[in-house]
């Protein structure tokens, strides 16, 4: 997944220390693939996946909308050239003063999942559109989402009814099927729940118009994943099944699927050792770990492809860890990683598929290691 442009950049620039390199041409291709797969859905790029200004400017120029989690992300999207009507404040947990600031900036689309949040928006952003997030089980996702966001469909009816009565525009519902979702039927189950909310509120004269189908679109790590086209076909079939001729407006929020395969992290082997003379497994310590941007290796959920200069040699099992003085900074131990026996201290290791959720997860100088550097080409 390291494009020739990325390899050429690393070979000529020789950046010091661990760094992420993102190829904008891959991001452009991914955007076009989503546009083709779901031509009737508006694309709201999840800024949290990678907020690099170069990425945001490219997507804004292509016509993308933006899903934001904070006022800072709203300002990033505006600075990149997006207009406020292309921005959603998609975090269900917002300070009232942040809602007011977003409203002052022109944002009129807000996510909610409880009556209390609706009441804040009614006070700070009167007349705005709101959509209510519905809980999903996340089955089939490599990085399932917790119950932190969303409410059961029955409560979503109450939330949107309250929004309507407070003078807000009860616009629709949203869901998220879990990050790195590889089960094409996941959207079918979630859309069935969405439809039930539509039907119950329509009976009260409150007509919802939009379904935000969230993110979850995967990037390729060690195994193949369905294409954007396959997701598009499955989602269209599910929409047709549940909504028939009364199709709602739809939104998708790709993050990982937009930028994940566009980035590669260059790292270096700092140490290779064993814990005893007869230990079959080697410990391979890299100059980047969980606190340097690889937080998604938590519970070994995301297994990144590793490329070494000695690929093709005989391999043996390795435990892979980061460089910090923290015992939690181990990437892969339960499922050890096969790496060349000839791998040695100082070798460069490329960690592929790291364009999403790396720079944004990197700590601010934990143990004195500087945050992950990034280059966008």
UniProtKB/TrEMBL annotation:
Gene3D superfamilies tied to this protein: Alanine racemase, Lyase, Ornithine Decarboxylase, Chain A, domain 1
Known pathway: Amine and polyamine biosynthesis; putrescine biosynthesis via L-ornithine pathway; putrescine from L-ornithine: step 1/1
Catalysed reactions, semicolon-separated: L-ornithine + H(+) = putrescine + CO2
Orn/DAP/Arg decarboxylase 2 N-terminal domain mapped to chain residues: 27-259
Keyword tRNA-binding tagged: no
Alphabetized UniProt keyword annotations: Lyase, Pyridoxal phosphate
CDD domains, sorted: PLPDE_III_ODC
Cofactor: pyridoxal 5'-phosphate
Entry EC number(s): 4.1.1.17
Protein family membership: Belongs to the Orn/Lys/Arg decarboxylase class-II family.
Name of the protein in its database record: ornithine decarboxylase
């Amino acid at each position: 997944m390291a494009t020739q442009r990325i390899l050429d950049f690393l070979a000529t620039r020789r950046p010091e220390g661990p760094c992420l390199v993102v190829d904008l041409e891959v991001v452009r291709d991914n955007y076009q693939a989503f546009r083709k797969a779901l031509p009737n859905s508006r694309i709201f790029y999840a800024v949290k996946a990678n907020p690099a200004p170069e990425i945001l400017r490219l997507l804004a120029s292509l016509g993308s909308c933006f899903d934001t989690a904070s006022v800072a992300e709203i300002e990033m999207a505006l600075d990149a050239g997006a207009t406020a009507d292309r921005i959603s404040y998609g975090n269900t947990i917002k300070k009232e003063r942040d809602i007011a600031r977003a409203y002052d900036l022109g944002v009129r689309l807000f996510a909610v999942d409880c009556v209390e949040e609706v009441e804040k928006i009614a006070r700070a952003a009167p007349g705005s559109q709101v959509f209510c997030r519905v809980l999903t089980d996340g089955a089939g996702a490599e990085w399932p989402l917790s119950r932190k966001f969303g409410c059961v469909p029955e409560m979503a009816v109450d939330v949107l009814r309250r929004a309507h009565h407070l003078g807000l525009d009860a616009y629709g519902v949203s869901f998220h099927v879990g990050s790195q979702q590889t089960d094409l039927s996941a959207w079918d189950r979630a859309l069935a729940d969405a439809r039930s909310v539509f039907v119950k509120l329509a009976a009260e004269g409150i007509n919802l118009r939009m379904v935000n189908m969230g993110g979850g679109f995967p990037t390729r790590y060690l195994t193949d994943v369905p294409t954007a086209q396959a997701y598009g076909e499955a989602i269209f079939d599910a929409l047709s099944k549940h909504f028939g001729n009364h199709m709602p407006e739809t939104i998708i929020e790709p993050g990982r699927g937009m930028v994940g395969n566009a980035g590669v992290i260059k790292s270096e082997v700092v140490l290779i050792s064993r814990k005893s003379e007869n230990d079959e497994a080697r410990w391979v310590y890299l100059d980047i770990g969980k606190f340097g941007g690889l937080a998604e290796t938590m519970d070994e959920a995301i297994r990144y492809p590793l490329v070494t200069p000695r690929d093709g040699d005989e391999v043996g099992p390795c435990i892979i860890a980061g460089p910090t003085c923290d015992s939690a900074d181990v990437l892969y131990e339960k499922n050890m990683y096969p790496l060349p026996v000839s791998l040695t201290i100082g070798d460069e290791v490329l960690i592929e598929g790291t364009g999403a959720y790396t720079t944004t997860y990197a700590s601010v100088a934990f143990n004195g290691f500087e945050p992950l550097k990034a280059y966008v080409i």
